[in-house]
Amino acid sequence: TADLCYVEEINKQRYCDPTKEKQWPCAPKKQYYGRGPLQLTWNYNYGLFGKENRLDTLKNPDLVSRNGVVAWRASLWFWMKNVRPVVKKGFGETIRAINGALECGGKNKPAVEARVKYYTEYCKRFRIPLGPNLRC
């Protein structure tokens, strides 16, 4: 999100996982790119979030970027479901929980290094220890 400056992903893609389409069908002409402060991505995340929050975000994914309350709810929902459980394992595991399929395992080393750099700078500013496992 570039320090919370963007509510929509810059490099927009469809992010429709065909293996999850039976349960979370992608709506025609809709894209499930990152939206919100902690950008929600993929049809299955939009589907699960919508189901648990009684919103049809599969048919209307733009709701996540156009409604500030929904945007923050989606971000907090994703954090609590996917990121919070791995926080104690180190920063690298939070990268894996958020963007692992696209960045971890050598898939996008520059992106991982940029995230580690931001994290390190914030830890220094707040005078908190870095913790273990900085990279995924």
TrEMBL record:
Pfam families: Glyco_hydro_19. One of its GO terms (biological process) is cell wall macromolecule catabolic process. Its EC number is 3.2.1.14. Keywords: Carbohydrate metabolism, Chitin degradation, Chitin-binding, Disulfide bond, Glycosidase, Hydrolase, Plant defense, Polysaccharide degradation. Residues 4-83, 89-136 form the Glycoside hydrolase family 19 catalytic domain. The keyword Endoplasmic reticulum does not apply. GO terms for molecular function: chitin binding; endochitinase activity. CDD domains: chitinase_GH19 (cd00325). Belongs to the glycosyl hydrolase 19 family. Chitinase class I subfamily. This is chitinase. It comes from Linum tenue.
